[in-house]
Amino acid sequence: MKNKVAVILAPVMPVWDNGDFCKDLKTILLDLNYEVHIIDTVNEITSCAPKVIIDSLKNKLNEEIKSPFILIGFAMGGALVQVISTQIDNVIGAISINGPGFADEDLKLKLSNLVNLLNQRELTLAMDELHKLVLPKNILYHIPPMHIDKELQENAISRMKLGFKLLLNLDARNIIPNFKHNFLSVVGELSQLASINNQVIVHSPHFQYRLVNKAGMRPWNDNPMDCNKILKEWLSTYE
């Protein structure tokens, strides 16, 4: 494939990290000679209504990316990949990394709890709870709490609320089965948010579903070797 291009949609982030969240995947893509574009997805959200963000991202990508490209998303970004891939002109493949296809009851409960804490302006408690949820289930190790400067805290609350509310409303069950290109869903085996229970399973040779052994919502933190192997194998089909 000539002019290989990949676009990565970020997860919900209280503060934009300039793409550090996907540095391992970016390294793989650059080594394979991809041009990589990373989008701060939450910054594009002006409404929790799926149609608004879908139309906004669709227009942005159709206008800005003129070459065929692979669309990749992490968590909420992965959920968005599943609802917009069929509507973007130049998408020739899609990857969801720990992106739910819809919010099942367990995910609704966890996201609603986070939104409630944020509504009460309990940013520290919400961040602590989120840190617990991104760890692999039943595996405990310490993640240093993220420090957010006081002047950024209101914006952080707004970003997280918008992202989590949107995720509660996204549903790809009647959309992603219509995707005609290769699709890969990567899910941490021990993930507490995205799980095999909230994936949209499509029985087609174009669709792959891969579990990352002993991984939670941040699979490159938990099992980088398996993550690299899965992504390199799938991307090799586009060589």
Looking at the structure, the CATH topology is Rossmann fold
Strand residues, percent: 15-25%
Main sheet summary: 6 strands, parallel
Number of domains: 1
Q: What is the C-alpha radius of gyration, as a whole number of Å?
A: 17 Å
Please bin the fraction of helical residues.
Answer: 25-40%
Q: Strand order of the main beta sheet, please? A: 2-1-3-4-5-6
Q: Structural class of the helix and strand makeup?
A: alpha/beta
Average residue-wise pLDDT: 93
Record field, number of beta strands: 6
Detail the topology: elements first, then pairings:
Blueprint lengths: L4 E5 L13 H9 L3 E5 L10 H15 L4 E6 L1 H9 L6 E7 L7 H15 L3 H12 L18 H17 L12 E7 L18 E6 L6 H4 L1 H12 L4
Parallel strand pairs: 1-2, 1-3, 3-4, 4-5, 5-6
Quick summary:
The chain has helices at residues 23-31, 50-64, 76-84, 105-119, 123-134, 153-169, 219-222, 224-235; strands at 5-9, 35-39, 69-74, 91-97, 182-188, 207-212. Helix 4 runs antiparallel to helix 6. Strands 2-1-3-4-5-6 form a 6-stranded parallel beta sheet.
Word description of this protein:
- The chain is globular.
- Helix 4 packs antiparallel against helix 5 and helix 4 runs antiparallel to helix 6.
- It starts with a strand and ends with a helix.
- The protein has a single domain, classed as Alpha/Beta hydrolase fold, catalytic domain (Rossmann fold, 3-Layer(aba) Sandwich).
- It has 239 residues and is α/β, with parallel strands linked by helices.
- The longest helix is centred in the C-terminal third of the chain and has 17 residues.
- The model has no long low-confidence stretch (mean pLDDT 93).
- Strands 2-1-3-4-5-6 form a six-stranded parallel beta sheet.
